[in-house]
Design brief:
This protein is an all-alpha fold and 104 residues long. The chain has one domain. The protein is built from 3 helices and no strands. α2 packs antiparallel against α3. The longest helix is centred in the middle third of the chain and has 33 residues. The protein is elongated, with a radius of gyration of 28 Å.
Length: 104
């Protein structure tokens, strides 16, 4: 009987595994490019700035809207608006401080 000589496919390097590994690396690179993960510099700072601005505006506008609605129903103008606007600003600053701290 003829003995089978070990070739590159039988030494632990299967062509299918190499192909799968190459496709996996390509998919991971595509995912990093698509999501922007790992980007640093001005792009990351720009995104953080936009998030801070959205938190600040959202807190103030949301608080003012809720306060105005409360005043409209309860007839307590302008106290509900002022109180809820103040609470919205506090919540916005709390969120800004939370997102500006490095992850633990």
């Amino acid at each position: 009987m003829a003995e089978i000589e070990p070739g590159p496919d039988t030494l632990g390097e299967d062509a299918r595994l190499r192909s799968l590994d190459e496709r996996l690396k390509a998919a991971q690179n595509d995912e990093v490019n698509r999501t922007g993960a790992g980007k640093t510099g001005s792009d990351a700072g720009y995104r953080l700035g936009n998030r801070v601005l959205a938190e600040l505006l959202g807190g103030m506008v949301g608080g003012a809207l809720i306060g105005w609605t409360f005043d409209w129903f309860a007839g307590t103008s302008p106290w509900g608006l002022l109180v809820m606007l103040f609470l919205g600003i506090i919540v916005a600053f709390r969120n800004i401080i939370r997102i500006s701290q490095p992850p633990k």
